[in-house]
């Protein structure tokens, strides 16, 4: 993902820091454009992260990209790879163009009515050069959708290590407690941002848990 030994050297989502405290930050993120895929993790070899290969195919990270420039069959430009992987979990009743891998990849889990099946939506945030949905190359894989995401205010806590379920839950609870104490109202589900590839040593990994706030 364009990083060596834990150092982040690629494009990440743009934001302004509104407030910075010892425990957390409040950030205002700029609007973005994302590519997303929704799937049943039980049907994917990589489970919850199974959509990664589909989206990597769309941007051309593994070879010929599965996309086309709108209105033409001409080959598109190759774009430098960017980085993090972001996971969001939410439980509820012409021609190809290589696109930069971005920060973040977002995964959202939704439980279908009846609670029998959980669907996951994973997103890649596209590079900032794609300012509108219309500007992004069209996917040739019908499972991939392109959509715009408006600006958002987020409470963020940063931590290191392997962001497994246990550590993420601990950091999420810590963030919730700090936000409530500071008088912020949480307005949605959390996002997990993982800024390093899996082969990075655990002590060099940078992660963030984010919560939308008002």
Protein architecture, described:
This protein has 214 residues and is mostly beta strands. It folds into 2 domains: 3-30 and 151-212, no CATH class; 34-82 and 89-147, no CATH class. The protein has 2 helices and 14 strands, in the order βββββαβββββββαββ. The protein has helices at residues 52-59, 165-181; strands at residues 3-4, 7-8, 15-20, 25-29, 32-39, 67-68, 85-88, 105-111, 118-125, 138-139, 145-149, 152-160, 191-194, 206-212. The chain has a 6-stranded antiparallel beta sheet with strand order 3-4-12-14-13-7, with helices on one face. It starts with a strand and ends with a strand.
Q: Keywords, please?
A:
single chain, 214 residues, mainly beta, 6-stranded antiparallel β-sheet, 4-stranded antiparallel β-sheet
Write the topology of this structure.
Layout: E1 3-4, E2 7-8, E3 15-20, E4 25-29, E5 32-39, H1 52-59, E6 67-68, E7 85-88, E8 105-111, E9 118-125, E10 138-139, E11 145-149, E12 152-160, H2 165-181, E13 191-194, E14 206-212
Antiparallel strand pairs: 1-2, 3-4, 4-12, 5-9, 5-11, 6-10, 7-13, 8-9, 12-14, 13-14
Low-pLDDT segments: none
Q: Mean pLDDT across all residues, rounded?
A: 81
Task: Specify Rg, calculated over alpha carbons.
Answer: 17 Å
Number of domains: 2
- Could you spell the SSE succession in H and E letters? EEEEEHEEEEEEEHEE
The main β sheet shows up as: 6 strands, antiparallel
Strand content: 25-35%
Q: What kind of oligomer do you see?
A: single chain
Structural category is mainly beta
The neighbouring-strand order within the major sheet is 3-4-12-14-13-7
Distance linking N and C termini: 32 Å
Helix content: 10-25%
The overall strand count is 14
Number of helices: 2
Task: Name the overall outline.
Answer: globular
